[in-house]
Amino acid sequence: MPDDGASVPSDWADIAFDGRSIRIEHQWLRPERAQRPLVVFLHEGLGSVSMWRDFPQRFCEAGDFRGLVFSRYGYGRSTPRPHDEKWGVDFMHRQAREALPALFDALDIGLGRSRGKPWLFGHSDGGSIALIHAASFPDAVDGITVLAPHILVEDVSVRSIEAARQAYLETDLRSRLARYHDDVDSAFWGWNDIWLDPAFRQWNLHALLPQLRCPVLAVQGEDDEYGTMAQIEGIHRYAAQTALLKLARCGHSPHRDQPASLTQDAVRFITAHTSYLK
């Protein structure tokens, strides 16, 4: 696991989700750049604010953007998932359609509140949540960048997630992840149990993707252990405005494996497609 490179202090927002109040850890980056595009970073299935390290800060500096990084419910310093709560097959849809809009409301983000609409920058599960949100609320975002997103469940994904379960039970993975989450078991089992549930094998975004209207940059590493190029090529098939970025010598985390190439292409894409900068 990478070292914790977060240096910006976290704040908390209270949102209503699933019939109760949830505390969401978040950090604002470069808030003084109020006239520049806002990029909202959505982490991976085991991620959090601190797991991003300093990539969001460096990315926002490179593009002269503002940024927002947050830990979803069950992750980081946000409210943990109760251990007896099992997430359903629709857990990413609920994050995209319920939790994310609630957070935007709490932080006064959105059309008519701050200049322009936000960009979503999602990794893995966070990329899928970005796709669902943009397709469900086509007027809510200016565009999205998705790294190693999931639009269907592949055999390679299941094999790698099974391997992660064994590593969590048999190696020091649990102790390493514990640095990034207040309740590491809540974070790990919430993610792992639903991805390995047989009912989840039928999950996909095929019916939703044609509803995408915004610009999309879809990024995949050639050596991604959790998915193949079918993921981003499928997005392009359903949403022709999607630009594809395929990175050599890159696994499941392009922002760690190829940060310079990713930053260069993604900054250029966001700058070129931000509506009020044209």
From TrEMBL:
List the EC numbers from the record. 4.2.99.20
Q: What class of enzyme is it?
A: lyase
Instruction: Report the residue ranges that make up the AB hydrolase-1 domain in this protein.
Output: 39-260
User: According to the lineage, what is the superkingdom?
Assistant: Bacteria
UniProt KW keywords: Lyase
Mark the transmembrane ranges.
none
Q: Does the keyword Lyase apply?
A: yes
SUPFAM superfamilies tied to this protein: alpha/beta-Hydrolases
Q: Name one GO molecular function term.
A: 2-succinyl-6-hydroxy-2,4-cyclohexadiene-1-carboxylate synthase activity
Please name the Pfam families in this protein's record.
Answer: Abhydrolase_6
Q: Does the keyword Ion transport apply?
A: no
The record, for PANTHER family, names:
ALPHA_BETA-HYDROLASES SUPERFAMILY PROTEIN, HYDROLASE
Q: What is this protein called?
A: 2-succinyl-6-hydroxy-2, 4-cyclohexadiene-1-carboxylate synthase
Identify the species of origin.
Cupriavidus yeoncheonensis
